[in-house]
Amino acid sequence: MSPTAPWWRSAVIYQVYIRSFADGNGDGVGDIAGIRSRLPYLKSLGVDAIWINPWYKSPMADHGYDVADFREIDPLFGSVAEAERLIEEAHEHGIRVIPDIVPNHTSDRHAWFRAALAAGPGSPERERYVFRPGRGPDGAQPPNDWVSCFGGPAWTRLPDGEWYLHLFAPEQPDLNWEHPEVRAEFESVLRFWFSMGVDGFRIDVAHGLIKHPELPDLPPRQEVAEERPPHVEHPHWDRDEVHEVYRSWRKVADEFPGDRCFVAEAWADTPERLAAYVRPDGLHTAFNFDFLMSTWDPKALRTVIDESLAMLGSVGAPATWVLSNHDVVRHLSRYGRPSPGKRWVANDVYRAEGPLDLDLGTRRARAAALLMLALPGGAYVYQGEELGLPEVEDLPDAVLQDPIWERSGHTQRGRDGCRVPLPWSGESAPYGFSPDGSSGEPWLPQPADWADRSVAAQTGDPASMLELYRTALRLRRAHPALGDGDLTWLDAPAEVLAFRREPGLVCVVNLSPEPYRLPGHSDVLLTSGPVEDGALAPDQAAWLAV
Description:
Layout: E1 12-16, H1 18-21, H2 32-37, H3 39-45, E2 49-52, E3 56-57, E4 69-73, H4 80-92, E5 96-101, H5 111-119, E6 131-132, E7 155-157, E8 163-165, H6 180-196, E9 200-203, H7 242-254, E10 261-264, H8 271-275, E11 285-286, H9 289-293, H10 298-313, E12 320-322, H11 331-335, E13 344-345, E14 349-350, H12 358-374, E15 378-382, H13 403-407, H14 455-458, H15 465-478, E16 488-489, E17 496-501, E18 505-510, E19 516-517, E20 523-527, E21 531-532, E22 535-536, E23 540-545
Parallel strand pairs: 1-2, 1-15, 2-5, 5-9, 9-10, 10-11, 12-15
Antiparallel strand pairs: 3-4, 6-8, 7-8, 13-14, 16-17, 17-18, 18-23, 19-22, 20-23, 21-22
């Protein structure tokens, strides 16, 4: 990695799901004060930046992804003044700050949408959103057959007879990105936060925004096949016109010093389509969901790695690698099912199936961390994965808050299991999540057996997941071979991944059922588990100096 290259090409970015990271005021919900109090922890972990899920003013129909005011912080989390102090203090710790931005939709409490409801059909106020008359003689049918990512139809009818589009919850009306006021408003919002010192933005639903002007029905659903199907034009996802928006956003970012950046949450059906988001005049990086969705299989992983590096490299962009986030089952639990297959349901939520083997999941999660952090490019760490947290799969129905649960008629439990508040210290809940003596209960209950998974319990234990991450991140920052760059695959058995990073580092991941003997001429820098008689056990990884 060149010392003059932009920081974001190699950055390890830690995702802070603000509600569940740390509670600073004792109400049971994480907040800005909690993040500020844990900046020394993040510095000791060794991350380069934090991505913070939406902190804007919101009625919280979708835990902040329904934004009522993009220039205000929700009182649940703090204030704009506190956000400004957080940015300053994070920079003092050498940590950059990347908040979420949610451009596909607003809250139904946003001033624009309230004005649209009051103004009525045909008004200029309604042109900022997607309002249409219904189908049928009395307009009683939705304008088309689009469905919400949270279940049910993507249209809601108003008393005046018109329908409005919401690709997520009804409380999240979609904006009309063909309207110049929408584009100008978001460029103004970007400048507002860039001027305050944020270092970039993660763009929610970056593949959304633009809709086919005629709003046609959905294309026929493709059959699931072993080979990746060809791209099919979609009426509201990943449309070519969206890149015009991001070319304008790139110009806004370039107005500010310090290598400001964007990362796209862009779901694309081919690597070529994903690469289009990160061309030189577009966004800087994009999440690599193919890597996240890959099974624990050497052929699948190598294919994803090769395709990602080739396609992103063809436009001069770095790859990014991610194992978990706030929308999917934690990877320790995914990997803990011997043959989980790919079961992705509403809003790309993974459905856990089969018996869970936590020991197996832990071994694979440790190995996956070393694989991810050795690959060229940047990486994302979702809060709690460095603690080895599994998915909480037994939350009582009564505490579930994800809108998927209600919208699916209680058939899909949603994403709450990966959002349970972190354990920091202590022998019982709330495990230091809230200040001592607080009366507020954590907004989601924590398991009774998480004491051994807390930050305090793992700190200083060389066998812990936390110390594995700390060591790996320290080596990654110090070793000239790691970060952005190239890799060379080495000869190895079919079920072993082995590649070289220059200068002088080899990563080996044993996905076979048998021990794999490491090269005898190398020195072991780090392993995910014990090496016995020079052999790497199944589901283990190693970094070697050569």
